[in-house]
Amino acid sequence: MNTLTREAKPNMEIAQVEAASDHQDEHLQQDEHHQQHPSGIKRWLFTTNHKDIGTLYLWFSFIMFLTGGAMAMVIRAELFQPGLQLIEPNFFNQMTTVHGLIMVFGAVMPAFTGLANWLIPMMIGAPDMALPRMNNWSFWILPFAFTILLSSLFMEGGGPNFGWTFYAPLSTTYSPDSTALFVFSIHIMGISSIMGAINVIVTIVNMRAPGMTWMKLPLFVWTWLITAFLLIAVMPVLAGTVTMVLTDKYFGTSFFDAAGGGDPVMFQHIFWFFGHPEVYIMILPSFGIISAIVPTFSRKKLFGYSSMVYATSSIAILSFLVWAHHMFTTGMPVFAELFFMYCTMLIAVPTGVKVFNWVATMWRGSLTFETPMLFAIAFIILFTIGGFSGLMLAITPADFQYHDTYFVVAHFHYVLVTGAIFSIMAAAYYWLPKWTGNMYDEKLGKIHFWCSVISVNVLFFPMHFLGLAGMPRRIPDYAVQFADVNQIVSIGGFAFGLSQFIFLALVIKCIRGGEKAAAKPWEGAEGLEWTLPSPAPYHSFTTPPEIK
Amino acid sequence: MKRVLYSFLALLFTPYVLASEMPLNMTKGVTDISGQVYNLHMIILYICCAIGVVVFGVMIYSMINHRKSKGAVAANFHESTKVEIAWTITPFIILIIMAIPATKTLIAMEDSSDADITIKITGSQWKWHYSYFDQDIEFYSLLSTPREQIEGTEEKGENYLLEVDKPLVLPINKKVRFLMTSEDVIHSWWVPAFAVKKDANPGFINEAWTRINIPGTYRGQCAELCGKDHGFMPIVVEALSQADFDVWVAEQKNQASTAAAEAEASLSKSLSMDELMAQGEQVYMSRCAACHQPNGMGLPGVFPPMKGSPITTGPLMDHLEMVINGKAGTAMQAFGKQLTAQEIAAVITYERNAWDNNTGDTVQAADVSQHGQ
Amino acid sequence: MSTHQGKSNRKLIGMLIAGAVGMFGFGFALVPLYDVLCEQLGINGKPQNSASTYKPITIDETRTITIEFMAQIQSDMPWEFTPEVKRMQVHPGELIRTNFNAKNLSLKDTIGQAIPSVSPGQGAAYFNKTECFCFNQQRLMAKESAVLPLIFFVDPDLPDSITTLTLSYTLYNITDRGYVGSVEQGAAR
C-alpha cells in the first residue's frame, strides 16, 4: 500500500473544477484534503482521488467475489452428492439468490467501476474524475448496501430466497420478512451505480485532453461510456421494479398480483427490460479491456477500431429489444416469440465482428504470452463458447428444452466468469505495474492462470451436459443419474475457488514490492497511461498531454 | 506446460467415462415436435462447432506460428473494409438459414387447436394437480420418494426424486392439449421427452400440446423456482395405447365410486387413538412435514411450529378450520379439497398428540365432515 | 477553462440525472403501457374487465366457436367454485347466459374476487361480457352458496384461426386484502 500513499503536489486546477462542479456536500469543501492526505482510515473514508477510490472499488469487489464464491462453495458442497446432506432447501435457495446478487452487483460491477476510476482519467489525459466527491459517495454507500443484504441472512426467516431474479409472487406474497432489506439494499446499489455512471460520462465528455477526439478514444473508454449510458437507462428501472415489489408486499398494491388486476408475468417483462441490458453492462467493459491487451501482446494495432465502436453501440441498442428471450416459456403469442428470437440472433453479428477483429489483430502479429495475454486469449475462446450457447438459447423451440436447466447456468457462467471475471483478471495483471510501480510475479501469475482456466472448465463445461440431460437449475437435490457429473463439477468448483487465493497472494506480493516497473512495462503497449511514470502519480495529468 | 494441458483435456473428457447412465445430449423425445426440436438443437450445435473450429483454428495457428519467440515480426495492417463487411454479412446469412426451420417448428408448437383431449394442469407448492376436462377425473400428483432416501438413511431408488404417487396418464397418438395455471407462485411444467415446457402462472392460463408416439413412462420436473421444495415436485407421465387408456379411465371411475363409498362408510366408523395416530403420522409426513418439519418444529420465521402451538393445542374447532380451509394470504393451503375426511381426522389427531402436545383429543371423520354444520 | 468546464459539467449532470429520474418513471409507465399492449395484442389473455354493451349485431350462423369454461380456486380460498356448463358451442354475435356456482365451505364470511383469463390470448379482445360476477367482489357468508351469472357474446370479428376459446376464472380470497374499489375490480358494488 505504501506506494499509493505518496504525496502529490497540490493542484489548484482540480480544486477549482471540484468547487465548481460539486455542489452536493458543502461541508466537504472546507476540507483541504488536497494539500495533505489524511493518513490511515480517514484517508480512505474522505478520499476524492480517482486512484484511491479505484483501489477501494477493486478491493471491495474482490472481497465480494470471495464472499459470493464462498456461497458458491456451499452450493457445490450440497450438490456434491444426491440427497440433502449439509443444508436444508430453504437455505440453499438463499445461497443461490445471494450468490447471484453479490456476484452481479458486488463483484463484477464494482470491479468495472474500480477499473474505470483508475484508468479513464489516465487514458484520456485528465487529472482526475470530473466529480470526485460524488465518486467518494458512490463507493462508500456500497459497503452499507451489502451489509444490509448479508445481514438479512441472519434474520429469523432468512434472507432473500427467491432467486436473484426475484420473480413475483414468490418475492411478494410468499417471500420472507426480510424482503424489505433486500429491496433497500438494491436501491442503494442502484444509486451507487448511477452516480458512478454519471461520473464516468461527465469525465469522458468534458475532461478529455485537447486533441483526444472521439475516434481516438481507447476502446476501454468507449465501451465504458456506452456502459454508463446503459446503466443510467436501466438501473432506475430496476429501482422501480423493487419498489413495486416492496409496495406489493407491504402496502397493498397489486402490480404483480392477479387478484388486484395485476399480472405476475409483467414483473418479468419489467425485470428483464433491466436485466438484459444489465448483462451487457457486465460484458462491454470487458470488450474494452481485451481490445487493449490483445494489440499490446501482438505488438500490432487493433484491427477494425471503428467497427469495434459501431459493434459495441449496436450491441447496446439491440440489448433493449431482446429482453423477452428470457421468458419464452411464460406463454407469449407466436409473433412476439418470433420477434424476440430474431432480435436475439441478430446480436450474434456485432459480437462476432468483435471476436473476428481480435483474431485478426493476433494474425501475423508478434505474440508473447504474459499472464494478461493468457487471460485475454482464454477470454476470447471461452466467451465465444458462451456466445455459442447463447445463440443456441436464442432458438425459441430449442430454448423450451434449455430454459431453466443447467445449460443456462453453464451459458451465463461462461459469459460472466470466463468472460467478465477473466477480463477483470487480465486487466488487473495488465495494469498492476502501473498501479503499484512493481512488476507482479510472472511465474505465480501463470500458475494462477493455468489453475483457473483448467478448473473453471471442469466446473462449467459439464454443466452443459447436465442441462441437456434434463437437470433443472436452482434445485438442492437431484436424480441419481446426475450424480457423477455433479461430483466433477463440484471438484472443479472447489479448485477454481482455491485458485483465486493465488491471485490474492500475487497482488499482495506485488503491492509490497518486486522488480520496479518501467513507465511502459509492455513493449507493445499504447495509450496515455503508459506515458505516466509507474506507479502513476497521485493526480494523473496535471497539464494536459499532447495528442498526436 | 504440455502435461498440464493433457491433464486438462483428460479431465474435460472424464464425464464421458464416468456418467455411463446419463445421456450427454438432449433427448430426441417421443413426439414429432421433440424430434424437430432435437434436430434444430443439433443443427445449431454443428454450426457453432464449425464456426468455432474455423475461428479458434485461425487463432491457434497464429498463436503457434506468429510468436515473437519464433522471430515473427508484426505486420502493419489494421483494417480492411472488405473483410469486415464479409464477416458481418456471412454470419447474417447463416442466421437467416437457421431462423427458417426454427420459425416453422415454433409455429407448429404454438398451434394447440383441434385437440382430442384437454387436461388442466395446476401447480401449487409443491405438487401438481391434473384434471381431465371431459372425463371427470382429477387428482393430485405428489413426490413419492420416501424422506429416508432424501436424508440418506436409506438407499436411493432408481427413480429417486423422479417418482410420484399418481402419474398423469395419457393416450398415445392423440393430440393432448394442456391448460396450465397455478394456485400460488409460478411453476413450470416440463417433460423433456415431449419438448413441452410451459409456465403455470397464477390467475392466468397457458396452453401447450403434445402428441405422443410411443407408449412409456416419461419423467420431468418443475422448471421454475417456486420456493423451498422446488426440487421436489416431479412430473411423471404414463403414455398408454388408446385401449389401455380406456381401461384406465374406467378404472378411475370405479375407484372414484369406491372411494366415495369408503368415505361414506368412514363417517360412521370410530377409530382408536392408535389407528388414528398411525394413519395421521403417514399423512403428516407426506403432506405437512415439508413445511412444518417431521419434528413439528417448523422453520422459524417461515413456517410456524406444530409443537405447543395455539392451533394444535387450543380449541379443536380452530384446528379443523385451519386444516380444512387454510389461511388466507399464506402458504397454508385449504386441505379440505386435497384430503379425505378420514385423512384429515387422522392428521389432526396426530398433530394434537405428537411431540408432547398430548391433548388426548381424537378426531373422527364424522367430526371433519360435520365441521361447521 | 475551469469555470467553463464547471458549467458544462453541471449541465451534463443535470441532463443525466433527469434521464435517470425519467427512466425511474418509465419503469412505472411500463405498467399501463403493458396493459395497453396486452389488450391490443392479446399478450396475456386478460379480457377487458368492464361491461360491454350489446348492440344487436348479425349473428354469424356459419361459424361455431367452442367455448370452454374453467373455474380455478387459489389454494388459500375455502370455496367450491364450478361452472354450470363446461363446454358450449356458440355462434359469434349470439348473446349467451351461463352460470357459475360458488359455495363458501368455511365458517367465516369470505370475500372472493374472480379473475378472468382467456386462452388463446389473442381471443381475449373478442370475448365481450355484458354482465359478469367478475366485475364485482363476491361476499359469501359462512356456508352460503350463490349462483354467479355471466352474460357474454363473441365478437364476430374473431379471427378465423381461433375455433376454441377457453375462459378461466381464478377465484382469489381477498377478505384480508382490502382491494376495495381498486383497479376496476370491486368498484361497482
Protein described:
- With 548 residues, chain A is mainly alpha-helical.
- Chain A has a single domain, classed as Cytochrome c oxidase-like, subunit I domain (Cytochrome C Oxidase, Chain A).
- Helix content of chain A is 66%, strand content 0%.
- The N terminus of chain A is likely disordered.
- Chain B is α+β, with helices and mostly antiparallel strands.
- Chain B has 3 domains: 84 residues, Helix Hairpins (Orthogonal Bundle), CATH 1.10.287; 143 residues, Cupredoxins -  blue copper proteins (Immunoglobulin-like); 100 residues, Cytochrome c-like domain (Cytochrome Bc1 Complex, Chain D, domain 2, Orthogonal Bundle).
- Helix content of chain B is 44%, strand content 16%.
- Chain C is of the alpha+beta class and 189 residues long.
- Chain C starts with a helix and ends in a 16-residue tail after the last strand.
- Classes of the chains: A mainly alpha (548), B alpha+beta (373), C alpha+beta (189).
- Chains in contact: A-B, A-C, B-C.
- At the A-B interface, helix 5, helix 11, helix 12, helix 13 and helix 14 of A face helix 1, helix 2, helix 3, helix 4 and strand 7 of B.
List keywords for this structure.
heterotrimer, A: 548 residues, mainly alpha, 66% helix, disordered N terminus, B: 373 residues, alpha+beta, Helix Hairpins, 5-stranded mixed β-sheet, 10 helices
